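Run: sequence + zinc ion -> complex structure.
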Amino acid sequence: MTDVYGVRPLQVGRHYEIDYIHSYGEVSDFFLGLKDRKLLATRCPKCGATWLPPRRDCGKCGARNEWFEAPQEGKVHTFSVLHFCAEAFLHEVPFVLAYIELPGIDTVFLTRIKGCKPDEVYIGMPVRARFRRLVDWTPNDVWFEPK
Ligand SMILES: [Zn+2]
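>> structure
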């Protein structure tokens, strides 16, 4: 079979594996905070906007943000029950991804809801943060559970 240019594209499968090293750059403190069981957010000193996940620079006015510790209790803003996902998490379906509202934070925080069945989650449900004891330096080091 040829494409419109008369090319016969040959596809060959090969195993590919690599150790990938990357940096979280200027939001590294967020991940370091998870290790210490803290949710670190950022606040703009100029306009007061607060961000979680953190942003190094304010998304509203561009000023350099400052770090502060966010509250760990809030409520479910909205959620989805996932029955299909990336391969790494397929063994966990169905599970809940939710946006969490936290007092004093202008954004919502995307995270997993654990500690209950997916059909027990509802909008407005009070939740609190939980942290992985042995971090793997990913957003999965934190999740929320019913309060
Ligand atoms: Zn600002």
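>> summary
Residues 44, 46-47, 49, 58, 60-61, 63 surround zinc ion (CB under 6 Å). The chain has one domain: 25-146.
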